[in-house]
Write a structure and sequence with these properties.
Strand order of the largest sheet: 1-2-3
Strand content: 5-15%
Oligomer: single chain
Mean pLDDT: 82
Number of strands: 3
Length: about 80
């Protein structure tokens, strides 16, 4: 969870939306994290380029399908999409 928290803290997302729910009482200081959406991200943002195994969705702008495919395929862990 420290890695996740560090990635989110270092993100340069221009928009950050969190779900409007609280951690269950038993998880207030544990591994539970609220669902988070980060938008308007640069292509090299750490939340995009590093694998994050938590409730996180990143959103980037692309000028069309080809640009979106190029962007998706430029991420190191991404599968090639055709």
């Amino acid at each position: 969870m420290a890695r996740y928290d560090s990635l989110v803290a270092s993100s340069s997302a221009k928009r950050q939306l969190a779900a409007d729910i609280a951690a269950p009482p038993s998880e207030e200081h544990g591994h539970w994290r609220v669902v988070l959406l980060l938008a308007d991200l640069p292509y090299d943002d750490p939340t995009v380029t590093e694998e994050v195994f938590c409730p996180l969705l990143t959103v980037q702008h692309a000028d069309g399908v080809e640009a979106a495919l190029t962007l998706a395929n430029s991420v190191p862990q991404a599968w090639v999409i055709q």
